[in-house]
Amino acid sequence: MSSNKINVAVRVRPFNKREIELGTGCIVQMQNNQTILLPPPPIEKDRLLRGVKSIVA
């Protein structure tokens, strides 16, 4: 049986001024050596109508 390991690096940059003004929240948390990804908050209906888009890579 193979004992392959996968290492993943997560880098979170500080929020820029626009993101702070929008009240953006961080969905990445660290606990010891574990990375926890939280589900993003639901998008408000008025933001959808303005055409604000999010790209997740």
TrEMBL record:
Top-rank taxon, per record: Eukaryota
UniProt xrefs under SUPFAM superfamilies: P-loop containing nucleoside triphosphate hydrolases
InterPro entries in the record: Kinesin_motor_dom, Kinesin_motor_dom_sf, P-loop_NTPase
Keywords linked to the UniProt accession: ATP-binding, Nucleotide-binding
BP GO terms, sorted: microtubule-based movement
UniProt GO molecular function: ATP binding; microtubule binding; microtubule motor activity
Protein known as: Kinesin motor domain-containing protein
